[in-house]
Task: structure prediction
Amino acid sequence: MTECIFCTLPKTDILVENELALAFFDKFPVNEGHVLIIPKRHVASLFDATREEIMDIWALLGNVKEMLDKRFHPDGYNVGINVGAAAGQTVFHMHVHVIPRYQGDVPDPRGGVRKIKKCLVPYS
Ligand code: 5GP
Ligand code: ZN
Result:
């Protein structure tokens, strides 16, 4: 899988890692401090990852938050996973987006990840 950009990531890009997962900054960040967490093994989707990989990814999420809180002092986070091209996935090595959010970075943040598309029904 040498053509996978996440499998060939320079070691110096790694922010934190544990046995099965590692984290690094997104090259095209949505906000300052945008991090991606991936399993070290190449798996295309969340649903191809093992329970152990998911556990290690989840454990790293705590370390990443701690690091981002100290460095960027965000006011919130969006944490998300795109699964499949229809859902917007463009790199087919599973990754968790950890996107720090800052008060006022959009005029009306309400809804967060719900805003990926127009809702089917009104949310009152
Ligand atoms: P997706 O669209 O698959 O959910 O997310 C892929 C993410 O990978 C995007 O946020 C994009 O900015 C990021 N990305 C694409 N190419 C590179 C790269 O070469 N290095 C890093 N660090 N991130 C990348
Ligand atoms: Zn890969």
Observations:
- The longest helix spans residues 51-72.
- Helices lie at 51-72.
